[in-house]
Amino acid sequence: AVLPAFIGKNDVDRTAPTGSVGAVYRILPTLDLLGSVATSFRQPTNSEMFSSSTTSIPNPNLVPETGLTFEGGFRVHVADATLKVTAFNSRYENFLQTVAVTFPGCSPCTQSQNIGKAEVNGIELEERWQVTPTVNLFGNATYLHGTNTTTGRPLPFLAPFRGRVGVQYASLDASYSILAVVDWATSKNRIDTTAEFQTSGYAIPKLYATLQLGQLVDRRLGDTKLI
Predict the structure, then answer these.
(1) SS3 203
(2) Largest CA distance in the chain
(3) How do 31-42 and 118-130 pair as beta strands?
(4) Which of 27, 77, 135, 163 lies most in the core, judged by the most C-beta atoms within 10 Å?
């Protein structure tokens, strides 16, 4: 049933120039002002354009998504710690989004489509603190507010707040390190009711260890690591 849409579209080749420019201005020995402008380009994937499943249909008519992002903020840095706060505004043309569609023999069904224009505003905070020579704390938090500016509806699947917090211990001889992190996001209640349900928040704890076997077991193992 979808075969006619593929005729003449089985070979896709696209290019696009992208780039960014930014500046850092140090107004105090410990305070920098930051600013940048960047373009983006996302080519639809092969699966979005050509793959079918029991719940999704392809869309060979997709065109690339393009974007322009403005970012500004400040960075505070001392000998053992850094704090960075930035605000950004991203504007997209031909925004790619998975939407619910009606199609014979496929219900419910989804398809990737170019939905028009979209805008995402946000604020991001990043920090790192070397508490001792062996212990450092780090984290980030982001606020996102996305809108389909063609329809005025919220962009689906964007948690309003998300981030990561963690602590790392690394031995003085760098033979091993242990890392504990928690990835988290808050509940999402600003939703596009045509595409999603309200979702709760989550927190995912993770624990990592890196062992330098050349130091801990045998020098002949060189830079071999066990993670």
Answers:
(1) strand
(2) 66
(3) unpaired
(4) 163
- Give Cβ neighbours of residue 133 (< 8 Å, ≥ 6 apart): 172
Structure tokens at 37: 């402008």
In the structure encoding, which two tokens stand for residue 92, read together?
């997209």
What is the DSSP secondary structure assignment for residue 5, as one 8-state letter? H
Instruction: Give the global pTM.
Output: 0.80
Which pair of structure tokens corresponds to residue 97?
């989004």
Rounded CA gap, 20 and 69, in Å? 9
Peptide bond into 108 cis (omega under 30): yes
> Residue type for 113, please?
Q
What is the pLDDT tens value at each position of the chain, 227 positions in all? 667 777 777 777 788 889 999 999 999 999 999 999 999 999 998 888 888 888 888 888 899 999 999 999 999 999 999 999 999 999 999 999 888 888 777 778 888 999 889 999 999 999 999 999 999 999 999 999 999 998 889 998 888 999 999 999 999 998 999 999 999 999 988 888 877 888 899 999 999 999 999 999 999 999 999 99
For the chain, the C-alpha Rg in angstroms (whole number) is 23
Helix (H) or strand (E) holding 215: helix 213-216
**What gap in Å lies between CA 182 and CA 126, rounded to an integer?**
15
